Amino acid sequence: LLVTWRVAVLSLHVLHRLFFPFFLKDLLFLLKVLRYGAQLELSGVTRTVRTVLQRFIQQAQRVPDKPFIIYDGRVHTYRDVDARSNKLAHVFRDSVGLRRGACVALLMSNEPDFVCAWLGLSKAGCSVAFLNINIRTKGLLHCFHCCGASTIVIGADMVECLEPILSSLLEDDIQVWVMKAHSDHPQVHTLLDKLESASDQPVPAALHATSSLRAPTLYIFTSGTTGLPKAAVITHLQSLKAAAGFWAFGAKSDDVVYIPLPLYHSAASLIGVGGTIHLGATCVLKKKFSASQFWQDCRTHNVTIFQYIGELCRYLCNQPQVNMEKVHKVRMGVGNGLRQDVWREFLSRFGNIKMCEVYGSTEGNLCFMNHIGKIGAVGRSNFFYRLLFKYDLVKFDMVMDDLVKDQRGFCQHVETGHTGLLLSKVSSTSPFFGYVGSKHLTERKILRNVLVKGDAYFNTGDLMVEDHQGFIYFRDRVGDTFRWKGENVATTEVSEALGLVDFIQEVNVYGVEVPDHEGRAGMAAITLRPGFTFDGRKLFHHAVRELPAYARPLFIRLQEEMEITSTFKQQKFQLVQSGFNPSTISDPLYVVDNDQRSYVPLTADKYSTIICGNHKL
Ligand SMILES: *[C@@H]1O[C@H](CO)[C@@H](O)[C@H](O)[C@H]1NC(C)=O
């Protein structure tokens, strides 16, 4: 007996050492998430899958008069949105002629009709591809081709984006429908006039019934590591998991969620709107984030949870201090990219708000959640978590821009507390659904024979650290993407676009850090074609035409010769390190000037105004 006791005490001690002081919190959180995951999987096995759409329909029956979306001061109840999406589903079937299984592209900014169109299309049995509203002509056409959509639904305020691409769309036999009652163009069809006479009764449930968790329901475009945006396949499984995010962090049906992020990203649509539906809660939707309106909005609508990206919290901290700023009911923020210094300041300014960082890419098969609220950490791992999710941090050489391998060609784990590249094992329990269209694109994100022969890992492209307590911290991105203004910028996409300018011979795009800014500012090192000179105005106009605002390089560095690494990749590391300081860089530097609509020489004076934050980037 004594021995048994000793063993028990000893193992308790070991457990305590392992998990202290977060043991209970970790356990409860994990049990909650696991139970939900098990229920999901079970529904897949028993073919009783209840999708986010079906959950919405159920909520509309349960709490029809509850506000679902508050937008611009107007309340849209669950009943309202259910009825309007029914009407839209009828119009999509009867007037547009859409059938179950079709894919439809949606180009809309944040408004309640984004949600109504999304739900309406889902009710009609269609999958929906959310298009980034910042996207330019070339990228937009590409998006159609890769998700196979033959119909596009456009918001009323997006019609002017249509002009430059309309003829190409029509050439490709793409049907164009706008959320308007009248259209000046004979081939642009209208939806709203047909809505009035449409029935608000449900379409047959068989149209949207599914028995498979792994059936695609959405396509969300992500700026991948190569070339133009890629359509990530979102299955019911992923959207159901994302919809449980708020709930996992402890949200309830009486919470009010503030959504200032764009709905075409997975954070606002899957976690935000999906999460609101899952809870049967209310969301306050904003067309655009406004730092000056934020707290007033929160007070007016009794907001309790808000979604953020790191930049957003920084903008809030940059607002002048006022007396009322701790007077609100916000108790939780859910988002990504909050840096330690901003996090601390945010809490001291605006009170005790639990900030829940979520790490995970739209298409990735791994997700970390910092449910403890530990400042600076993007996620939390522990003994249990590692049993369930097979991820590894492996050694990566920043200078060579490559994995560090041993003699046998395998990757090497980093030690606890050291930075490594985050890889996530691809298996049947954490599948990677990949991108549509090209197997090649999917395969590029997968690394094989990483630690043993025959294994496969999803390459997140993120450098991370895990500390001794199991907290996970983001360090940097490797390779070909960086983040700016909450969007991923694919350096190859920018390089391809700039490479079309006549005076440019070679382009190397990378991101540089700017004090007091999240992410990295785009910079392009270029070499000139023999006999040509640099023309800042021409480059500016080209960039505006071809690239979304967040992807346009802010700085240009003129080089005599492009450096490459010993493995024949463009040398980025040293360029990134040397930044954009004209007093330490001998190459000519230019900075974008939106007033002069040109790239102008970056002088020491300009540089210091940027560093002091007096020059808006
Ligand atoms: C917000 O809460 C206060 C106090 O609980 C209440 O009086 C007010 O009506 C609420 N406002 C809204 C928009 O629900």
From TrEMBL:
| AMP-dependent synthetase/ligase domain boundaries | 58-379
Please state where this protein is localized.
Answer: Cell membrane
In the record, biological process GO terms are:
long-chain fatty acid import into cell
What GO cellular component entries does it have? endoplasmic reticulum membrane; plasma membrane
Q: Which UniProt keywords apply?
A: Cell membrane, Fatty acid metabolism, Ligase, Lipid metabolism, Lipid transport, Membrane, Nucleotide-binding, Signal, Transmembrane, Transmembrane helix, Transport
Which GO terms fall under molecular function for this chain's record?
A: long-chain fatty acid transmembrane transporter activity; long-chain fatty acid-CoA ligase activity; nucleotide binding
Which InterPro entries does this entry report, sorted A to Z? AMP-bd_C, AMP-bd_C_sf, AMP-binding_CS, AMP-dep_synth/lig_dom, ANL_N_sf
The signal peptide annotation in the UniProt record is 1-17
Q: What is its EC number?
A: 6.2.1.3
Q: Which PROSITE patterns match?
A: AMP_BINDING (PS00455)
Q: Which Pfam families match?
A: AMP-binding, AMP-binding_C
Catalysed reaction(s) here are: tetracosanoate + ATP + CoA = tetracosanoyl-CoA + AMP + diphosphate; a very long-chain fatty acid + ATP + CoA = a very long-chain fatty acyl-CoA + AMP + diphosphate; a long-chain fatty acid + ATP + CoA = a long-chain fatty acyl-CoA + AMP + diphosphate
Q: How does it sit in the membrane?
A: Multi-pass membrane protein
Residue ranges annotated for the AMP-binding enzyme C-terminal domain, each copy included? 493-569
Top EC class per UniProt? ligase
Q: Which family does it belong to?
A: Belongs to the ATP-dependent AMP-binding enzyme family.
**Name under which the protein is recorded:** long-chain-fatty-acid--CoA ligase
The encoding gene: slc27a6
